[in-house]
Amino acid sequence: ARVELDPVLSIRRGVPEEFVEYFQDRFRRLLGIVRKRFQNNLYTPSQVRLRARRLSRVHVAGLVTEKRSARRGFVIVLEDESDQIRVFIPREEGDLYRAAESVMMDQLIVVSGEVDPKRGTLRPDAIHHPDVPRGFTPNRSRSRKRAVLISDVHVGSSYFLEDLWRRFVDWLRSEEARDVEYLLICGDLVDGVGIYPGQEDELGIKDIYGQYEEAARLLSMLPSHIRVVYIPGNHEPVRQAEPQPKVPERFLRPLIDSVDHFLAAGNPAVVNLEGVRILLYHGRSLNTVFKYVPGLQPPTGRTVVSAMRQLLRARHLAPMYGEHPIAPESRDWLVIEEVPEVVHMGHVHIFGVGVYRGVRLINSGTFQAETPYIKKMGITATPGIYPVLSLHDLSVRPLDLRSPTPA
């Protein structure tokens, strides 16, 4: 396993200038992605303003800084570094109106339409996302090795299902799993301490170091040839703001000492498994997608894949600012600059698998029983079913451990 992308983080003060720098970097990186598709016919709002009288039908790229429902439709404002353009989408434009409904704040979109030179506005006829190119062909490995993708183990929680973990280990030690070479853990390996109000009453191990010692004991049960890759989630002892650094070594020492092949990275990260690039992101922004994109409630295996597809089409892991903490780094590490073969998320405790334009979308479920907190969020957790990925053909097989004998 090789880490190809791991965020390099700096100390930020959270002042307005840093946020301006952050969004300018986001804009430039996403503009670079869409420019490849539209080439010379792509404009920014400031370019439209300068040339409005000479333009007719154009494609305009900008970050969505305003989106509101008006009496007769939707108003969207697109912005670049120095200007903005107003776009009105009438209700009677059915497909276009529905496309506008699912646009999220702060994401970059391209709107095609006719320029009104007097008003400096755009009469739209299409909305485009940065998206995955239609001709994308994923890499496949020559080897027949497989990877198991998990997340949300929540060691230390009194709701952690150790019996399920033991069945998981038994399967990994079985002849059927002899070609499993990798285990990817996409955040929330431990339950952490002080993550939400009343958590202490739900902890079996109330000390973070004790939780990592127990995690090391559990992972030491794995066959010694398995290579473990681990990124943090929102329960780990790192900053809550994304992107997150890898968990510090003082916590990981028991894991490093007891797991033969152990690799830690930040959130998000891209790992290369024998030519197959897997983007790992814990998935905290999925809550925001469920909240603001119509038709995705309640969260299920199907809708979690739809939410992941929404982020992949935006080519950004957390487009909407302000719903969960995002650090104003000088580089926006949450932009999906290179299209991976696989996107792996967790966080919502729901197993879901899908494919979008050749990219495998995988949410890896949980090893935790349904907690009062998860129930309150309207989520029906799916512990006991995990994705097994073939690196050779990118097929995904569900490993169902919900009954004592694996299916």
Layout of strands and helices, then pairs:
Blueprint lengths: L1 E4 L10 H23 L3 E2 L1 H7 L5 E14 L2 E7 L4 E7 L3 H8 L6 E9 L4 E8 L17 E5 L11 H11 L7 E7 L21 H12 L7 E5 L17 H10 L2 E4 L4 E5 L2 E5 L5 H7 L8 H14 L27 E4 L5 E6 L2 E6 L7 H5 L8 E6 L5 E5 L7
The global form is elongated
Can you tell me the CATH topology of the largest domain?
Purple Acid Phosphatase, chain A, domain 2
SS elements, strand count: 18
Derived from helix and strand composition plus strand pairing, the structural class reads alpha/beta
Task: Profile the largest sheet.
Answer: 6 strands, mixed
Number of helices: 9
- The tally of structural domains comes to 2
Question: Ends: how far apart?
Answer: 28 Å
Helix content: 10-25%
In terms of DSSP E residues, the strand content is 25-35%
Low-confidence stretches: none
Q: H/E element string? A: EHEHEEEHEEEHEHEHEEEHHEEEHEE
Strand order of the largest sheet: 1-12-13-14-16-15
Question: What would you note in describing this structure?
Answer:
The chain has 407 residues and is of the alpha/beta class. The chain folds into 2 domains: 44-128, Nucleic acid-binding proteins (OB fold (Dihydrolipoamide Acetyltransferase, E2P), Beta Barrel); 135-400, Purple Acid Phosphatase, chain A, domain 2. Helices cover 24% and strands 27% of the residues. A 6-stranded mixed β-sheet has the order 1-12-13-14-16-15, with helices on one face. Helix 5 (208-219) links the parallel strand 9 and strand 10. The longest helix is centred in the N-terminal third of the chain and has 23 residues, at 16-38. It is elongated and about 70 Å long.
